[in-house]
Write a structure and sequence with these properties.
Elements (H helix, E strand, L loop, with lengths): L1 E2 L11 H13 L10 H21 L7 E4 L2 H12 L5 E5 L4 H12 L4 E5 L9 H7 L4 E7 L11 H10 L3 E5 L11 H4 L3 E5 L11 E5 L37 H17 L1 H20 L4 E4 L11 E5 L4 H12 L1 E2 L1 E3 L4 H7 L6 E4 L7 H15 L1
Parallel strand pairs: 1-11, 3-4, 3-5, 5-6, 6-7
Antiparallel strand pairs: 2-8, 7-8, 9-10, 10-13, 12-13
Helix pairs in contact: 1-8, 2-8, 3-4, 9-12, 10-12
Amino acid sequence: MIYLDNAATSFPKPESVYQALDRFARSSLANPGRAGHRMALAAEHALDDARHRLNQLFHGAAPERFVFTLNCTDALNMAFKGVLRAGDHVITTDLEHNSISRPLRAMELAGFIALTRIPADRGGTIDPDAVRKALTPRTRLIAITHASNVLGTVQPIAEVGQIAHEHEALLLVDAAQTAGVIPIDVQEIGIDLLGFPGHKGLLGPTGTGALYVRPGLELRPWREGGTGGDSSSETQPKQWPYFLEGGTPNVLGVAGMAVGIEFVQERGLESIRAHETELTERLWRRLDEMPGFTVFGHRDLNRRVGTLSFRCEALPAAELGGILDQAFEIAIRPGLHCAPYIHRALGTHPEGLVRVSPGPFNTTENIDRLANALKEIVS
């Protein structure tokens, strides 16, 4: 199977991740605790090690400000339900994944918040001035994806962050498509809340992710329960990160994610991104040679990640994806990609598009196999 669906989850993982998961599961897979037997301490150490790696990767203010979550969706929900108050105004965009769109829309429908959605241009980029014009005295939060999971276009989050802080609003960034691919300095950019998965660009297993919360910003707890340390408090202990980490964490997954981060840092984020965008550009050039294909998004590789979506006039996206899977053993992702607003803006709703997202282990031969398969199918 040629796997080209890394925007959904990366595959394969580095061999070192598989080895770490097996080793940890056999020797250290206990419930983490800051006191107790050696396996519990080893599990707690694995969490601490991963927090330090995340703090270095994203240039955070402190390791304890990284809260482990189930995935990026969990992190974003934790942020929204932790910081938003009745009557707040939120600004977002039509590029967003449903993990931003759905919770905010539900809050809007409930009358809890007011919501403004900024449209992207036809190339798939938002205008920071449109964000500025949408601000109101009640704007509490600007929630924006770093890169579109449909178009691969990178958004001007630094400019948006500056606008947010000029008006005392918070900046939340969804880094689902950029964590492990584009360098992110949360302090330099001024990111108040950063949500990201561990299973995509960080090359860890599924069921992993984290939320970064800048110091001084307090949230209401998303879940409450045991913390492995303070068991006497009647309510959730205030100590970070345990304040937002009620219950047993996915310590095995986090241990694997830490090794994935190590692999990414050794190979280099710039190198990984260049490899992936060059593969999508190679596919784009092949599609240009074939009639009946339309690629969406702008072509500037400096403002893209390795995700490319296209429409085929001859076949619906779902049918084309099924043929590639069954007849050619090529895995791509057809449909709306959990981002219906941008598909409506593009005129590709409800059928959607075919999305191709190579990863660090894909090759030019993989892309050529896909292009040749598409040519054979439509001919």
